Amino acid sequence: MMIRTPLRPLARILQARASGLNPDTIEAENRRQRSEALRDRARAGAEGRLWLLAGVFVLAFATIGGRMAVLAAADPAEPRSATAGAEIRAQRADLTDRHGRVLATNLVTHSLYAQPRDMVDPARAARELARIFPDIDAAALERRLTDGRSFLWIRRKLSPEQMQAVHEIGDPGLLFGPREMRLYPNGRLAAHVLGGASFGDEGVHSAEVIGTAGIEKALDDRLRDPAHAGQPVALSLDLTVQAAVEEVLGAGMTMMNAKGAAAILMEAATGEILALSSLPDFDPNDRPQPPTQGDPADSPLFNRAVQGLYELGSTFKIFAAAQALDLGLVNPETLVDASAPMTFGRHKIKEFQNKNYGPQLSVTDIIVKSSNVGTARLALQIGAVRQQAFLKSLGLFDPTPVELVEAPRARPLIPARWVDIVTITTSYGHGMSASPLHLAAAYAAIANGGVAVRPTLLHGGPHAPGPRVMSEQTARQAVSMLRDVVAREEGTANLAEVPGYAVAGKTGTADKPNPRGGYYDDKVINTFASVFPAHDPKYVLIVTLDEPVENTGTEPRRTAGWTAVPVAAEIIRRTAPLLGLRPAIEPRGPDALTLTAN
Model pTM? Predict the structure, then answer.
């Protein structure tokens, strides 16, 4: 309770009158003191309120400033639905070759998006963006920036130079979001193996990288699995060998005027693929769109080594010879009726250029001279049922199990009815179609001593031995026959001789089917299937050329001996040293004459 001091206190008034002073001055003094006290209290209250208001303002501005700092430092976020969703998995493991050299990795980059409601000058921004990105239509972008939407993607990934150029536009409605993108540092190298990657689920703060083709898609779950902590996946490829194969194959394709080419280099014992190339190819950093018209096989995305199903011609003849040997029907020197043409019902089996290698050829000479008639005779001895079982054991009836997403759809084309004439034509590679990779796996079984292999693009894993498909003796005899195809002058692949590396192999020239029926007269698929070194086979090499023609002679030459064989020989010459193979001088046979001393 406040006690007010009286303005005219009686004691002081009486004292003032007794002293002869004016009592009114006492009242005036008291009024002045009371007024000053009230003024002081009012000033103190006002100052308190001002300090309180100042504190509120400081706190408010500090809160706003702090929030702005947090927003400026944080990644921008795209508006999302309030419902909970799956977390975006942005991490993806690297792919390396067998020596740890990087084939595919991740690169931190940025995306570009717009928040049109925050833009100062959408028309100018659209013009400037069209200058930075020539494929952008400025007018179309301006319409999208002014149609009322609140969010717009402009670019999923930017180069540092593009990002700086966008910065210089200076519009607050153009924003960047960090993300990882897939990078293939070797460009086109091994493009069909790697396949490529793209973005899956994405926001402005991150994006999910998913495989779109090749091994990137086939191993997508493994590469994105957080349980593996981003541990690199080692492929069986050898980067140096792959580069050499692609360089030689590309040059050979050009020299032989071919429209396409494929090559596979495989370890015979394990099935590990050291190099796999298909031409034409592409850059997985900028993977083209699939074709919407024309023949899909003409697209650079088409993997001829795996997806290409071709009649592989005379490369199949060694299978008939090996099976006949393994069944004990013949030995390498057994003579077979090779008189041509051979009449079978209403069909005539002819030799290339209507030659006649008869009346008889040894089994070895059937392979060396590539006799259709001789091979047909062997196939008839084997029979349809046993022939089918043997080819199936070599993996020629089923898709290859290689780790490429395209492989399961590449199922060999098998005749619906396996009558005797099919038995004959299949023995020399006509009537059924398979891929070059199928052929590589089948030849690996011959090269490694008779055990089936599983083609793989993964390095160092457990390689369980496959079933035995022929005896070791049969495999050795088959390799010896293939060696004679190259080493003997009359062999169809004598241009494959590479001094020091004892190449063994078989040519295959197959007329190309015409989609309207029958075969083209002047279009072929040429293949050379080889193993080396013949004395201790380690590697299998398959080279296939689509529609080649060699024009250095007086007439165009389209056989594999003139086209695929020289290309394969150069690949072996280039890659054998890279594989650690030392050239070896083959022992010569005894001379016909012996010098003796008296």
Answer: 0.80
Same domain, 313 and 205: no
Burial of 381 (0-12, 13-18, 19+ CB in 10 A): middle
How does pLDDT run across 304-345, given as a tens digit for each residue?
999 999 999 999 999 999 999 999 999 999 999 999 899 998
Task: Write the secondary structure of 536-591 as one string of H (helix), E (strand) and C (coil).
Answer: CCCEEEEEEEECCCECCCCCCECCCCCCHHHHHHHHHHHHCCCCCCCCCCCCCCCC
Long-range contacts, 533-536 (Cβ 8 Å, 24+): 533/501, 533/502, 533/503, 533/581, 533/584, 534/479, 534/480, 534/482, 534/483, 534/502, 534/503, 534/504, 535/502, 535/584, 535/586
| CA 85 centroid distance within chain | 30
157/249 same-domain check: no
pLDDT in tens, 129-147: 999 999 899 999 999 999 8
Quote the pLDDT of residue 62. 86
Query: Within 13 Å and on the Cβ side, how many CA atoms surround 578?
Result: 19
Residues shown for the chain: 598
Tell me: do 413 and 494 sit in the same domain: yes
Q: Which helix (DSSP H) or strand (DSSP E) does residue 395 occupy?
A: none
Query: What is the C-alpha to C-alpha distance for residues 455 and 450, in angstroms, rounded to an integer?
Result: 15
How many folded domains does the chain comprise? 2
Q: With 50 as the cut, is the pLDDT of residue 427 above it?
A: yes
Domain hosting residue 158, numbered range: 89-117+153-168+178-224
Same domain for 326 and 213? no
Residue with tokens 């083709």: 213
